[in-house]
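INFO batch 0412 | record 1 of 1 | parsing
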Amino acid sequence: MSYTYQYPRPALSVDIVLFGFQESQLSVLLIQRANPPFAGDWALPGGFVDLDETLEQAALRELQEETGLSDLNLEQLHAFSTIDRDPRERVISIAFYGLVKQERYQPVAADDARDARWFPIENLPQLAFDHQQIFSVARQRLKAKLQHQPPTAS
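INFO prediction complete | emitting tokens
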């Protein structure tokens, strides 16, 4: 497919907030970026949406490429569109979130991730881009959801 537009278009990406619970501890999965911008910094798994995939397919693909994790249920969280959220270009991100039993999912860094690991939600490193904001929105959504539904996780 080839596209030509008269006007510039923003890029579209996905970010994934994957919560893991083990005993009474809640954690979140982060990757350490291998490439600029923010090389060496911790971030949520994610990346750009390909032209031939849905948002959901992109989220699952990026999660698998960067962490080796698959067969997960993710739910769309929110769109993040601050104009300068990515120093490379204008990027709009659709965030997804999920909840899993942490012991079932051991991440392995791959693709453009130098490392991938679980961090307790109360002890996160500084996050790249606007990922602290994305994490905060996901944490609030998870908290609200758990108040109305019993927890289920894959």
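INFO post-check: DSSP finds two helices and seven strands in the chain.
INFO record closed
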